[in-house]
Amino acid sequence: MTRSDQWKLYLTIAFVLASVWTLWPTFQFYSLPPKVRQEVLQARPNMATTEAERLKLEKYAKLREKAIRLGLDLQGGMYLLLEVDTSKLGPAEAKNAVDQVMQIIRNRIDQFGVAEPSIQKQGTSRILVQLPGLLDQERAKALIGQTALLEFKLVKTEEESKALYDRIDAYFARKLRGGALPDSAAPDSLLHPFSSRLLTTSHAEATVLSENVPIVDSMIRQLQADSTFVSDSRLAWDAHDTDVAGRTARALYVVGRDPLMKGSEVASAQMRMDLDAARPGAPGVSFNLTSRGGALFGDITGSNVGRRLAIVLDGKIQSAPNIQEKIPRGQGSITGSFSEEEAQNLAIVLRSGALPAPVNVVEERTVGPSLGQDSIEKGLRAAALAALLVVFFMILYYKISGVVAVVALFLNILGLLACMAGFHATLTLPGIAGVVLTIGMAVDTNVLIFERIREELRNKRTVLAAIETGYARAYRTIIDAHVTTLLSSFALMWFGTGPIRGFAITLSIGLLINLVTAVGISKMIFDAWSVRRKLSSISI
Amino acid sequence: MFQLLHGVNIDWMRRRHIAFLISGACMLISLVSLILHGGPRYGVDFTGGSLVEIQTTPALHADQVRAAVDHAGYSGSEIQELSKPGQFLIRVEVKPGAQSPASGIAHAVQTEHPSSKVEVLRVETVGPRVGSELRGAAIKAILFAMGLILIYVGIRYDWRYSLGAVVALFHDVFITVGALSITNKEITLTVVAALLTIAGFSINDTIVIFDRIRERSKTLRRENPAKVMNIAINETLSRTIITSFTVFLTVLALYLLGGEVIHDFSFAMLVGVVFGTYSSVYVASGLALEIQLWLERANAGRPKR
């Protein structure tokens, strides 16, 4: 063995040791029973009851940290691409809005309790949220997407409301008649195109049968869009349906345009079951205001005793209690027909604050845990079968040289997985496909070399010369083939999104390692083998 | 030595016109299928829309699921029964601004058939704008990849080869898209990954042959180009077949065992590997030869004028 051969050997051994060292936590973690792994994923440090259990959880969490991560498509979870709608904000506000939204969403998710959430900004107005291993997707979506703009508005008096309805009726009546007001003998639907669709027992709180809700709602939108219709009042729907003589209906309130106070003054909020005396056990949310908010709330309630105060969340009325007396301590509650989960969500969003702009879900991908598990098993089985077929064929066709190729292939996969663990990369299903294609390219590299060596042997070269020229000549082809494939996977990394990028990254790492293993290491084995024995023939 | 195809001496280039005919026919079939289907069938990734996969235990019939989805008011939905009993893939359109219909669908099926447990396996919802962005990104990625390869091969070899390689590559990708269209499979992000891998493999195969042609052109300077190409293809034939065969084996493993999610990916790969092998022998080299002959005729004609 020459001196440089020795160095190569040491480097190879170092490569193998480093790979095994990096992959050891992955091996340990994924040999844990699935149930324990699931617990580690969901666990929080304070869940442990005994000291021994705490240490064990910590140890597993460390393993998890160093193990190869599985993508959402393999372990199950949720991928959400949110777009922040900044169309109603000024340019300066819009600039900060996305960062604020990100911060608020991060707070909400932290309080919801998801292991390893990932929240990233994408472009200028988008946020990518990834929640691995999440089970309750609908709830998470409601929690993330809710604007949670809490406002306190005064409900208008009967007279003010009546006046508003008269104006609205006149507005639409004119519109229907092309500008002129109808004469008083006209039917009610022409005279009162708006209020005839309401069941009015009270003007400040009217009800609308649910079949009429869409048309009334579109009329309200028309009014809001028309800048010539000026009013200090606003119409707002109740958040929930009610029952009017056996038919479903929804309440419509007349409230002030400007809020008396906003949810930014809320200091804390909790879900509670004892807020509504009429319905004990019904979930609701109690909140405490900041000291400034408390003083403001005291003033508002003090000067409006006897009137109704609407609690408006995202434009919908949650409740509109009567103000019995001045409320000085800055405490309040929101009741309504909430489920326990909805009330819990509401408490979280009130605590973490309102989003400065509404967000829309523009892309959603959810994989249930059972499908993820299924994909892993199938992917691994396919990879195992592919590897087995290749190993079998290579050894059958190239004999001992085939064994050398298989060793190189094995080292390639080992190095690829170690790189993924080392860089904290995520293995996805397209990533597994990338590994399979790496296997294909690795085999091709050795086939190219071996076919070349065979040719040289046929040309009556000695074994040593055949190996030397075989490698030298195949090398150029191999470089060209690798460069072109790498170029196309760089294009994928550049322009591709999520799954495609995962594929391109695994393929690129695999190809780069292949240049070391399939060319360098296999050559080293050949050299050691042929030089030492001074071979006159070779098994290829 | 256990050898396949050693010492073959096939005159590939003499039959290149038959190959051009076959390629032309395959591309024509693909084109006709694409026209009949009104273009490639894009998945929700590119059109926008929602896709919900559910598992019902005990298994419901497709008609029951369809009725429940229709009653819930998701018109224009498409329901596909998967190979596993009780598994359904439901596609619905998403109207701009509307909430994702996924939970609504699962809920509707559950309330109409309370005796069967409905589990949501997978949801993919892509807004129409994101869909068109993803489509733009995919097209850009493919064009960019092809452009890079064209430049690289042009620098390393010759523009004649470069053109032959890219046409061969386009040929493979186009026929694969045609095969997807004939079998009525969707083009999704993962299928695009498959198309790009096919492009990679096709170019790899082509380069191995080109490399040999270049090498032989130097040693056999006096031979005519068609013969040089034949020699190069014959000499690399065993490598071409063995590599394609092993890649075919690995992709076949993915196709058979890889499961529902990558089924279309591996199908595209299977088609692409077969055509990629054929095209690097015939289309790429054949075209390079045609261009060279055409150039020679043009050069021969010029001094006389």
How does this model look, in words?
The complex is a heterodimer of chains A (540) and B (305). Chain A has 540 residues and is of the alpha+beta class. Chain A has 3 domains: 78 residues, 2-Layer Sandwich (Alpha-Beta Plaits), CATH 3.30.70.3400; 204 residues, 2-Layer Sandwich (Gyrase A, domain 2), CATH 3.30.1360.200; 166 residues, Multidrug efflux transporter AcrB transmembrane domain (Multidrug efflux transporter AcrB transmembrane fold), CATH 1.20.1640.10. Chain A is 56% helix and 17% strand. In chain A, the strands form 5 sheets. Chain A has a 4-stranded antiparallel β-sheet. In chain A, strand 3 and strand 4 form a beta hairpin. In chain A, helix 1 crosses helix 15, helix 12 crosses helix 13 and helix 14 packs antiparallel against helix 15. Chain A is elongated and about 115 Å long. The model of chain A has no long low-confidence stretch (mean pLDDT 84). Chain B is α+β, with helices and mostly antiparallel strands. Chain B has 2 domains: 202 residues, Up-down Bundle (Multidrug efflux transporter AcrB transmembrane fold); 78 residues, Alpha-Beta Plaits (2-Layer Sandwich), CATH 3.30.70. Chain B is 66% helix and 10% strand. Chain B has 9 helices and 4 strands. Chain B has a 4-stranded antiparallel β-sheet. In chain B, helix 1 crosses helix 9, helix 5 packs antiparallel against helix 6 and helix 6 packs antiparallel against helix 9. Chain B starts with 15 loop residues before the first helix and ends with a helix. The model of chain B has no long low-confidence stretch (mean pLDDT 84). Classes of the chains: A alpha+beta (540), B alpha+beta (305). Chains A and B meet through helix 6, strand 15, helix 12, helix 13 and helix 14 of A and strand 4, helix 5, helix 7 and helix 8 of B.
